[in-house]
Structures are given as structure tokens and as C-alpha cells.
Amino acid sequence: MAIRMQTNSFAAIAIQLMMNVWLISSVLSNCQFPDFINHQDVWTRKNGEGATLTAYIKPHMITAKYCPYVGSACQHYVQHCVEKRDDNQYIVKHEIRSTGFSPPRYLCIQFIFRSPTVLQMKESEKFDKPSAELCNNIVLNNWPLFSTSIGTAQAIACPFSGGYNMRISSNGHELCSNKMLSPRIESECEAGDGISVDFKHKECIHENLKSMRMSLRQHIDCMATWTDRNYQFVILRPDSDHALCLRIKKPLDNIRHAYLFMDLVCDPGNSVGQPEDSQNFLSIEFERKYIHSVCENEFEGCSDERFCDTDMRAHCKLTCGPCRSDDICAFPEYLRRVWSIYDRKYAQTNKMRYVNITNYEIDFPDVGKFQCLFNNVTAKHRSILLHTFDNGCYPKFTCMETYYSSDTVRQFRLGRRINWPVYDLSRVKSQACKSIMFKKDYQIGDSSEKFKIPKITVIDASYTKSQNCKLDYEFRNHLNGLYFREGDKCDGCLYYDSIINPDYFEVRTINCPSSLNYLEYICMASFKFDNETTAVVTGTRIRRQNTYRQFLCWVFTGTGEKRKVVVFDAADCNEVQLQLSLAGDVVPKSMFEVMEKPPKLCPRPIDDEPQPDIPIIPLDTSSVTATPVKKKPLNGYKLTTDVRKGPLAPNKPVKTDRQNADSSASLSLPQSLLHTIFCLCVLLRTLCTT
């Protein structure tokens, strides 16, 4: 009897253990760390004393190695996700793997997202049993975790803009205090610029920054930013492999002081802001200086003309001169108007942006105003512009290329900038418009590639004049139309008659979830990228009206079985966008493959369709009076448009089937065709009689 009771007891214990294992495995499988963590990357942390942490953060667990200092024995541990709490807090089971058996312990951790490559964590103390109270007392670790992909990740917009002179101190000692030219920092002078630092003298670069291969003129990207108390923290990535943390005291529109931590710590400091976690930092005082003309002195000592005979002459433009051009530079009349930018931003926000060109100034959105300085530099279509700022950034020079694509369409391209006051005007004139100034490194995935700076295509939507589409023979209407396929979405046909109607083409969808439909595209400009590639800027217009509803760029490229049609927003009509799209680095609006051996013939066009109700593009900001477009006859058939969902948007259902459409078409033959048939009949009768 005792044996039976003991057996039952063991069975009960075994069942209970199995239940516990099942419950634990169930909890573990349902507890997952946040989706904003890149689970494929390795995450690292290194403090000023040499302690390093290397962690793999998987959806359900963290596998980590912690080394207290260089050369020490490292501890390996695993943290299993046990329970998810509010606000990205988690109860985890902590198990040490590098030593003999030790019982698991429990703690609460919290993930704080700073960017896709930067995390911060809060942690509690470790206890023997899990409890919800663990998350009541968690402490922020000021040493962030960095993803190993931070070196190639996409930068973000820096949180402050403008230019400042700097006074840099380390441990109370000012660096390069005996120099007349102060180190300088400029941030986001133009959107996307990032930060540039000009130390002026090598004595102004701290030894720890030199060990990071920091150069006299250093470009720096911003990788993450957040606010804590009255400070703005910014993770900086120089062009080297290192990262830094900048702590700026607000307000950001008029910065007075900041700390640059050369360890990977973001320390908010004590109650008065004095750093506590590291002594490896620089204290930086900021002073804003405004330069609104190319004829100004960079520092006060320039009033002494003796500097004009030294290397400081370049920084004393007002005193030493010459700094002004005697040329009167005005933009040609064909440019002076308001140009609309139909790009992805407009497609997403429906807010139009404009390039406004007057006699002597050009205003680019997100960039600023430029003054005309020199015309017809190295080529008739190139001009040198001067860009001045109101935020403390020093002036910059650039070369603008202008392309007269058609009466309705222009293309612009701005070259790389030359900073004031490095060169005098004569050297600016000889350097700014060189071909190398129109090439730039772009970050593509994990690598950097040099491309030509892309053109931006703009449209005067108030003066819409059709042009010959000039499609190559490979894309012309071969009797039945050009059959294409858009991936696995659906098929379509493109109709283009280069003789009768050379200034527009039509598209009809086939085998789509929606009913058959037609779209009509009026060509506004056509230009070649190369011998096998033609780009066409089009406007989509509702018939019987003189208003366009959408502007696109159609790129026809390739020959034979490699023919493709790629569609972009009109502003992106350039070779760089096409190259990136074909390589899979950029997603266009649409991409069609022309079928060398189509599964069926393209259907004949249908006479008429109901008119869709589509919102009109606003044109009221243009300064040019609208000119109606004279539409050519469509030879017996008419088309409708629907642009609400891109080039192949669904239309209203077709009311007639294929047979009715064909019979309808046969009953409404064009007069010219009827006249031809009649003449043939007369000729045959004459021959037979003879």
C-alpha cells in the first residue's frame, strides 16, 4: 500500500513537472521582444573602462557575452523572454552559461528605440523569482547599444540647423586658443547635408579625435537623436568607423553650449548637468556669426591690411578684395516663371512645391534662394549661383545646369557646393562648373556608389503644349498595339501611332481584377537617355477639358525581349532613377515588360466610356496665363482616363463585350477608310470590265 502511494506521489510530481514545462514553454513561445529591433544584427556596447558587451537579440531570447575589461575572462549568458509588460518592458530569465550550474535569476528590462541602429536599455536588479514588481525600479543605462550595421546605415536629418564658430575645451583647457580663425560647425544648411566641421588648424583637433582619423574638414552624419530633460542627444557618425555622442543644451535654434562624448556614452549628468559617467569629453561653446555677402571679413583682425599679404587674405574678402563681379547676371526669359514639382512627396501629401525663378533669383524648395552670379560658364546652359543663408551658415557657390526640354518642361541640376571663403571669384568661376562637380557619392544599400547628380524635371502646368512622343520603332504601334505585363499583377496594351497621332499614346489593361479600361497620355516632352532609351513626360487629361490630372515620366528602354517600360513621377525623370530601378534599389511607380510572344492579340479600342470624377491639380499659383491644348481628332474612337491609382488605375465597367465592341467599331469606320474602299471597288469594276 505504501509502495502504491509512493508510486502515485511520483506520478503526480512527474505530471506536475510536465505541466510546468508545458506552461513555461507556452509562455516563452508567446513572449517576443519588440519588432523594431533588428534581430539579424549584432549589438555591442563598450564603456570607457574597456568593458564590452556583445549581444544577439532574437525574438524570444538574448544571447550575450560580457567582458569586464580587456584581457579578462568573459561571461556568457542567456536571457529568455518570460512575460511582456507595458511600454516595451519584459520579465526575463537570466542564465549564466560560462560557469558551472547556477540557478536562474530574473530581472526586468526595457528597450528604448533611438533609431534602427541605436538602442538604450533600462534594467532592474536581479532576483531569484519572477515578479511584476521587478519593473517598478528600472534604471537607464547611459551607454547605448549599437548595431554593427551603423557604419553603412542610412543617416537621419540632424536636429539642428545653422552655422557656429566654436571654442573647444578639454579638462578646462581651451584648444588652439592662440589661433585667429575659430573652428566652425555647420549643420543642415541645406536639407540632408548632415554636419560639417572645419577645425581650421590641426591643433584644434583633440588627440582622441585624431586617433579616430578625424580630418581638418570632417563630414559627420547624424544616426539617432532624442530628448532627455533639457538636452538634445545626437549620435554622430564621422566618415570613420567610430561613433560619438553630442549633448546639446536647448534651445536648438540658438545653441550656446554642448558636450561631445568621445566614449560611447550619452550622459545627462548630475543635477547641474556635469557629466558623471565619463571624463573623456569636450566642452564646446557656440557663437553664431552671420555672413550675407561674399564681400565680408571672416574675423575681426582682417581690418589690418597687412593680412592681405599673408595666407589669411582668403578670409579677409572685404579688406583685401576683389570680391564682386562686374557682370550683370540675369536668368533668361524662358526660365522666368513658376515651375511645379510633381514628385513622390506631392503624390503622398497632395501639397504642391514650386521652383520660382525671377530675373536675378531662383528659389528651390527645401534648399533655399540662389542669386545669379555668372552666366554661360563653360557651356551656354550653365550658370554659377550664390546661396546665402539666414541661419549662420556661410555662403556657398554652385553651378546650375538648365535643360530646355520643351515649351512646357524644364530640367535643372545643381552641382556640388564650394564653400565661402576658400576661393576667390575667379577660381570659383573656373572650378564650380567642372564635370566632376556634377558627380556625387550615394549610399545604396550597404555600399557607396558614385553617380551623376540627377536632374529634377519641372513643369509649367499652366502652359501645356503637346509634343511628338518620338518613341523608338521597338515601342511603336505594330497594328495591334504593344502587349506588356506588369509582374504578376495584370497585362496591358500600349497603342501609339507615330504618323497619325504622334503626340499621345494610350494604355488598356487586360486580365486585371477590374474591368477593361483605357488611359490616355499626352506627351509634353521627349528626350533620349541613350540609343536604346527614350524618356517621355506626359500629362493625363480628361477629354473635352483643358486641365491635366497627373504628370508622369515614362521611360522606354531596351530592345527585343529586353524591352521594358518604367514609370516614375515626373520630377524623377532622369538616368539615375532608371539605373537604380533596374538594379532593384529603387521602386518605381510601375515597371512593365514588353512580351515578345504575347499570349493573345491586343484588343481593339472601345469607342466610349463614362467620364470619371477626378480631382484637378491646383494651378492657381502659376504666373503664366494658361493656354488650351488643341487636341487632334482621334479617328473614330475616344478614350477616358482615371489616374487615382497610378498609370493603370481601374476604370468603370465596360458596358459592351468584345463582340459588341468589334461590331460597333465596324459600323463606325472613319470617312477616309470608307472613301478608300469605294475607290477600290470602282477600280476593280473598271479592271473587270476591261
From TrEMBL:
Signal peptide: 1-29
Presence of keyword 4Fe-4S: no
InterPro entries: DUF7042, DUF7043
Domain DUF7043: residue ranges: 29-142
Pfam families: DUF7042 (PF23069), DUF7043 (PF23070)
Domain DUF7042: 155-241
Keywords for this protein: Signal
Entry keyword Signal: yes
Positions of the UniProt region annotated as Disordered: 640-665
Name of the featured protein: ShKT domain-containing protein
Native organism: Mytilus galloprovincialis
